[in-house]
Design goal:
The protein has a four-stranded antiparallel β-sheet. It is elongated. It has 85 residues and is of the alpha+beta class. It is 18% helix and 44% strand.
Amino acid sequence: ITAEIIDIKPNGRMTLEARRLVQKDDEIQSLVLSGECRREDVTNANTVLSTQLLGLTLVVHNEGQVKDAADKGWITQVLEAIFNF
């Protein structure tokens, strides 16, 4: 996945962020991968291994009918809050 440098820290570490949008039928899944690396970790091919990223974070966000159907309604949420044991 291709990432871009979004920040360079005073100590030389680079903050990278990569975004990917996957659309299948009526479902949309967006992925955001971020982390920091040292300048020395960047290869001659301008790549960085995921094992060399500090604070690697992957955020997945889903939208669509399947996600909407999986979400609980407000009545179910209230009943679970009251009778949760």
